[in-house]
Amino acid sequence: MPIFHAIVLGVTQGLTEFLPISSSGHLGIIPWLFQWNHFNGDTRMENTFDVAVHFGTLVGSVICLWGDVRRYSSAGLLALVGRRPWNNQARFAWFLLLSALPAAILAASFEGFFLTQSNRIGLIAFGLAGFGVLLWAADRRPQTKAVVKDLTMRRAALLGWGQCFALLPGVSRSGINITIARTLGYRRSDAARIAFLMGLPIIGGAAIYRLFGVISDGLPNGMWSVLAVGAFSSAVTGWFAIHVVLRWVRTHSYAGFAAYRLCLALAIAIVLWSR
What we know:
The protein is mainly alpha-helical. It has one domain (3-274). The chain has helices at 3-18, 23-34, 43-64, 66-80, 88-99, 101-109, 111-117, 121-139, 153-162, 173-183, 188-217, 224-248, 255-274. Helix 8 (121-139) packs antiparallel against helix 13 (255-274) and helix 9 (153-162) runs antiparallel to helix 10 (173-183). The radius of gyration is 18 Å and the shape is globular.
């Protein structure tokens, strides 16, 4: 894989993982559009690169959200060992972890099926458009006084099951979580923060799961520079995306993201029709 392509894919992963526009969709669209075929069916190389960019995204997101990560993780761990009471912050930490279970179990159980769907461009376009409309509709709901720490078990369960839809390309994990959080009445900024924090166990778990496969298969030769560039690009742009979204939604709606999804889906449909 050329270094430039690794940068493009790393930047795409980092940005679209947290912008509610679907990282899996864009990572499928770009190679399809430019007819890149870096891996030639070599799943070992593909898994290794996937681990690198997900690890980079995880590092960038943890750095950006470090204040929240430190506060909630320490509250959850101290409550678990009995050194602090089970307050809202402690419960929030464990609800975050538990919310990752439905998608993790479903992904591990039907990994082969979801991998075969990841490059279906028509399905990507449908996911972009359909869930873009849902994001727009949910964002029109009035904002209540619900804040991040008010996460209950019921809300965590709804968000956790909602993340299962993101296993399909074009849906967007952050997008579906923001959609559900806005439907539940969370303010735009709090909906984004919940979605980003809920993404940490998912991203970390996916990277670790794929890492076991990389270790068992062995690291492909000659990929160190590509992996390093891809990981670094995704880390920097992941940090940037979270920072931008959290600032943007303080004064703006999610309508622009929904419009982008619809326009991209339409563009894909036109290209498919013309080919």
